[in-house]
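Exercise: predict the fold of this chain.
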Amino acid sequence: MNRREASKAETRRLVLEAARELFSQKGMQECTIRDIAGKAGVSPASVLVHYKSKTALLEEALVGDIRDALSGLVASIPAGAGLLDRLMHLSKGMLRFYDRDRSLYRTLVRLTIFEPVSETPGMTKQSEEYVRFLSEMVEAEKASGVIRQDVDPMFAAASIFFFYLGALTMLFRMPEMSVETVAGMLSSMTAQYLEGIAGGHP
């Protein structure tokens, strides 16, 4: 990496750290590009050179934390647990993660989930990787006969993911609901779906 590339990388790092801190403190709506630039010690123009909008900056500032949280949950999946328990370990863990700052992550999801995938590369990549991981779990259950052989693993994984997104939406929209309540509803819905694709084994 030459000096120019190193300087750019350092600017991005400073901007991301400043954005993550200020978004958490003030919320995205109250935080301006000028605020972020001042905190990072760079000019507002420098921020916009690297990020075309506050949404793009918010996405990159937070998607790494989401990835790290999910990686930790994947690594801690209980050995020998059934499919439902493993899925709920992941889902409940992520609901708890988002619950730490519902307002900030509500903003992230609201600004990215309905946008074209080309406009939200970080969240798109994260979602695609997670669905692929779920499909591998389903494929393994097919191989052991727990899930019917005619079930498409990717379609099943997408269905499970959509149940999770519905639960996450509920968590964001209803601040009076606890993670435990939302996770309980998600577990019931997911269990019912898994029963529908079961291969007849206990």
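Check your answer against the key: DSSP finds nine helices and no strands in the chain.
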